[in-house]
Amino acid sequence: MKGNRILFYAGPSELSTDQWVVIISNLITYGDQVWLRADTHFTKSLGSYPFERFNNMLRELATLGMVKFWDLEAFPSDGDIIQDRIISKEEHLELYEALKYDARLNDLQEIGNNRGAEVERTSKLIDYRQELWTLGLCSLCNSNQIIYQKSPSGILGTEFYKFEKINEKITQRVYSKFHIAGIETLEVSDIIEMKKLSAKYQNKIDTLFETDALSFSLLSSSHIDRKLEDLKFEFDTYLNDLAIKSKGLPIGRSAWDTAVNILSFSFAPATALSIAQTALDLLRKAKKSQDENFIFYMTELSNRVHRKR
């Protein structure tokens, strides 16, 4: 899959709704395929309906090749999931030995010998080995980006962060800023369609941050928020003008409320759907700029999410 963005999920094998949302969000923005451990499963605390629904979606995404499963030959997972990549005992041992004798361990020995320093050294050693182990597994699955449950500690240095260019940190903030909620309600068909449009999202976000740090994960929260506030203002202004021209709505209401979030029925359903559909139709027909492509993507995503709520 040359040129594709192949993701490696580094979170827990037991998935909650929040973790499922992270995986889906990455697939519809920056991923073409995601690798999961073969023992990946959903927590039964979800309840019977979402548990069954998410499992069915996971199997369907696997059939479509959007989800792949890896496993360790030395410690095979239970269950009947077909493994797409089995890491052999030899590969496992080679990775283990690489971690064991990595030269950077010497840096940890420079920490002092008092009890406090020993605790610090042990903690850093665990973090270091876990991060390097994740990186090794990512490489063995031919992945080029990692989805983290939490951001890495940074002990490996800045070169490690290039594997976190998946921009989960950015995407989740974009969704929050644009009031996108309910990603877990999307069906496989929605994921497929939004993935086809993902370049419209990627191009805008990549351009927005292209002159910043080497990796998005190194950006401060306040810096990200300032940029996204500007993006939200541009979005509101464009959709507000569009809503006014198409339906004569008052300027006082924000564009997102009038053109998108009204699908939550703050207005009559027919009016809400009409406005959102008008915006989508106009954007489909126009020769779109990068900004308009991004607006189209976000409006389409919100439309699909709100229709299912």
Architecture overview:
With 309 residues, the chain is α/β, with parallel strands linked by helices. The protein folds into 2 domains: 6-166; 172-307, no CATH class. 54% of the residues lie in helices and 8% in strands.
Supply the number of structural domains. 2
What structural category characterises the helix and strand content? alpha/beta
Instruction: Measure the end-to-end span.
Output: 35 Å
User: Which strand order does the major sheet show?
Assistant: 6-5-3-1-7
**Helical percentage:** 40-55%
- What is the H/E string? EEHEEHEEHHHEHHHHHHH
- Taken from the alpha-carbon principal axes, the silhouette is globular
